[in-house]
Input
Amino acid sequence: MLQTSNYSLVLFLQFLLLFYDLFVNSFSELLRTAPAVQLVLFIIQDIAILFNVIIIFLMFFNTFVFQAGLVNLLFHKFKGTILLSAAYLALSISFHVWAQAGLWAQALRAAVAVPAGLLLPYPFTNLVLDVVLLFLYLGTEATRIFFGKATVCQRKVPLSTSLPLTVPAAVMAAYYLLLQTYALRLEAILSSLLLLFYATELLLGVLALVSFSRYSCLSTCGEPG
Output
């Protein structure tokens, strides 16, 4: 259970994430001339929104109503919050993809086959983008794997935290597959396999979560007789 003394920390984290979201929405258009920086801000913003949604669900999981198996009652009570949060996350990602597509389309169309042995330039902004996303990828993947170990222990809350983190991890894997400045053929193959594993893991994780929920409900309400 979440201790009362920790609520202030959770609220502070939520307000911090919301403030960053508001900051990016207000000033991101000033960086249209620096698409690499804007892309980093957008990715961090989407991850922040996703973390906010995860925190909301973690708060739900720590209620006595959820632990008593009254999930439907909890959903109907907070249906508006859940649907608005999911819709805002989807709209935010859609807008970011649409905004960045126009900025990067010209650069992608200019991509041509490069002869072997040619020394290629590596723009500083692209280097910063690749390195920052690599560290974000590392943090997201480490957190996802840490909570994903709960599948062995049949614990729902850590698994419910790990599954949503598969989405930003898959997005960053797709970036290194499609939008990385220079990519080896080996990287393209490994990123494609990684996306396949992410999709499989997401499907199996959802099935495991449903199975754990049914088992928990049977344990709470008693075996049907």
About this structure: The longest helix spans residues 185-221.
